[in-house]
Design brief:
Layout (H helix, E strand, L loop, with lengths): L2 E2 L2 E2 L5 E3 L8 H9 L4 E3 L3 E2 H5 L3 H5 L10 E6 L3 H13 L4 E6 L4 H4 L11 H14 L4 E6 L9 H10 L4 E5 L14 H7 L8 E4 L5 H11 L3 E4 L8 H12 L8 H19 L1 H15 L7 H7 L5 H12 L3
Parallel strand pairs: 3-4, 3-11, 4-6, 5-6, 6-7, 7-8, 8-9, 9-10, 10-11
Antiparallel strand pairs: 1-2
Length: 324
Amino acid sequence: MVKIANIELGEFPLLLAPMEDVSDPPFRALCKAYGADLMFTEFISSEGLIRNAIKSKKKLDIFEYERPIGIQIFGGDIESMKKATAMAEEARPDLIDINFGCPVKKVVCKEAGAGILKNIPKMVKLTEEIVKSTQLPVTVKTRLGWDEQSKHIVEVAERLQDVGIKAISIHGRTRVQMYKGQADWTLIGEVKNNPRITIPIFGNGDVNTPEKALEMKNRFGIDGIMIGRASIGYPWIFKEIKHFLRTGHILPPPTLFERTEASKKHLSDSVKWKGEKQGVLEMRKHYGNYFRGIPDFKDFRKKLVSQNGLNELLDTLNLIEHRA
């Protein structure tokens, strides 16, 4: 049984990665239904929270059916991060996660996200201050290092464990790599197999099939896997991996009916959550994967990414469904 503090996650948990404009409540509801064991909010700016920015505060909304769930925050200022942690705590998550992995320039330039990988002493100090400031378990998501010359993740994991984090998720790339090239899991395996490490280690990066999940589990002995991009428009990935790990058999892909029903629920919930304009726009990144591999789909896809109204999109999805 893998546990983060007292939170039981099962034998080999699958985590939904926090992704901006993706890991919102409508999408999390689907991922939970298809087997995600632990989910996180979209990452939330500490500065945005303490300024009461509407978008940042809305990301704090979590629901009972999502548990266990973590609120993920980022920022480069220790006092702001402590204040943001206190505000996040009021939303009653199961844990607080610190983002030390986001490679985006506007985050990195403030020594936040993966930017802090250039300043490991500050990374450790910030983490220690947050651990001391909250009663909730604190976890971290990070990368191997800033660049090829600074992949210090084995030492970093030890130091973060020493100041009190309860788990760490490691993306197998450096910040300089962004999302290019292949994720390197060898150092993730070194962290897991370091005799000094006692907290759960979750691997992240390029796991997009059940077979890949099993390979990473067997080769590197990690405690669980965090799934990011492979889940976008494809919440079934969690169910498929779990079934394969349990039985050794690949589940058949979701039917066209299942795909359209999931799309309709996701779209309707997104519009309810964000309003029609934003809900419709943000769904567009999901359709390609929802209907990946469906023959003669080009015209439907054009409609899905160009129509702006909820009702016309639902009509299009109903037309697709009736092809089944």
